[in-house]
Amino acid sequence: MRMDVKGIHYKAVNEKIRESADKGNENIVLDNVNGHRYIGAGLSSKIKIKINGVPGNDLGAFMDGPTIIVSSNGQDGIGNTMNAGKIIIHGSCGDIAGHAMRGGSLYVKGDAGYRIGIHMKSYKSLYPVIIIGGTVGDFLGEYMAGGLIIVLGLDKKKEETILGNYCGTGMHGGTIYIRGDIKDYQLGKEVKNSDIEEEDKKILKKYLKEYCKYFSLDADKIMNDDFKKLIPSSKRPYGKLYAY
Fold this sequence. Notes:
Elements: E1 2-4, H1 10-22, E2 27-34, E3 48-54, E4 64-70, E5 84-89, E6 105-108, E7 129-132, E8 145-151, E9 173-179, E10 191-195, H2 198-215, H3 219-223, E11 227-232, H4 239-242
């Protein structure tokens, strides 16, 4: 199904998507998307949605299986509490992408805003993965409890930093890999910074190979650069605040 959504209210667009999915359509193309919210929210089929334009907030929220491909940028809250599936952004995205994400993959070619991966978590076979090709803002991985975040900084200018401040604040699970140098002042008190080991390289290679195929990038070339590994220093960073 192909649909021109110019001038159509986002609720009507989402109703059409659900109707199409219920009828067994496996591919939907949306043209002239301009701030339409909640596209793909709560869908649990294996449908593929291609978006030409800029979707609005909460793209793929609570999603459980579909694949969403965005031809340009995305706004805030992409993949909010996502359970399974893939969201592929060929531009940049706004704040709180992957908020409380529980599974699936979020791949962004460009930059991302603040609080990416806040409250991310994993459970049993569910393992959420976020890969940002550019730079990120403050509070990356805030209160992160599980899963994986990779930040590549591929096209950043020499004077730019790959991430903002307070990275990993309150982090108590999961792993963050940063390609390039980071300073201690950029990190929250609850996170440890270390060099990667052979097992880390295997993990990076596995996920970067998939990421790179969507954006026609060279995973081996990216792997040649230095990465840093951020992990929580404690599983209960604020335990003493609430118990004695």
